[in-house]
Amino acid sequence: MLCVLFSLMFWIFTSLSKDYETHIRVPVSYHNIPFTKxxxxxxxxxxxxxxxxxxxxxxxxxxxxxPDSIKVDVAALSGSKQQLNIQTLxxxxxxxxxxxxxxxxxxxxxxxxxxxxxKKVPVKFNGSISFRDRYDATSPVVLIPxxxxxxxxxxxxxxxxxxxxxxxxxxxxxxxxxxxxxxxxASFSGLATSVSNISYKLQVSEFTEGxxxxxxxxxxxxxxxxxxxxxxxxxxYTVALADYPQLHAEDFIAYTEVxxxxxxxxxxxxxxxxxxxxxxxxxxxxxVDYLIRK
Length: 294
Fold this sequence. Notes:
RNA Polymerase Alpha Subunit, Chain A, domain 2, 3 domains, about 50% strand, elongated
C-alpha cells in the first residue's frame, strides 16, 4: 500500500514539475478612440494567451482571476496616424501574476480608420423641478460643458441642432444640487459625441417677500400740469433671504406719463429700475387716475 501511494505522489510531482503549454482566451477592449474617427474593419474582441511552464505555474494561470479585459489605448498607440497597428505581445504585461504569455494570437491588430464630419451643439437640461415652499433656484441649472461635439454622417449631423440630458425629476428641493447626468443618446441617434456625461449645478435659496410703498414719478414736463390719483403705489416682490437686507426703497423707481398722442382713461404704472435679484414684482394699483390742469 505504501509503495502504491509513493508511486502516485511521485507521478503527481513529476507531472506538475514538467513543462507544459496551455492557453486561455481574454477579452480585449478599446479606449480613447477619437470620436471623429471610425474603423474600416472589425477589431477582435478577444485574444488567445499562450503560456509555458510547470504544472504548478500553469495551474496558477487557470485559477488566477482573469482581468475583465486587456485594454488598448487607441489614441496613444496610433497618434496622428490613420492606422492602428499593435503587436499584441506588447500587451502581455497586463496579465496579472509572474507568469506572462510567450505568445498571443492574433499576433497583431491592424485596422485603418477614416474621418467623419463634426460640429458643436448646445446641451439642454431635460428635467422637471419643484421646490419646497419658500424655496427656489437663484439661477437656471448650470451645465458643464454646455456644448458638445457631435460626429457622423453629414445627412444625420445636419438634423441635430442640440442634445439633451437624460430625463430627471426633482421634487421638494430645498438645497443646492450638483452631480453628473448622462446624455440622452436618443437625442443624437446615429452620431458619436465627444463626452457622454455632463456635470450640473443648481443653486437654491430660501426666498422671502418684500413690500414697499413708492411715489410715482412723472416726466419733468408733466409734473406741474398732471395730478395722479393716487400718487403712490405698493410694490411687492420676492427675493433670496440672503439678499433681502441689501434692498432699499431707493433701488426701485415707479413712473408713468401721459402719452402725447392720446388721453387714456387711466395711466399704467411701470418700474424704471429695480434690483436684478428681485423677482415676481407686482404693482398695486397697476393703473391710476389722473387730472390735467390747464
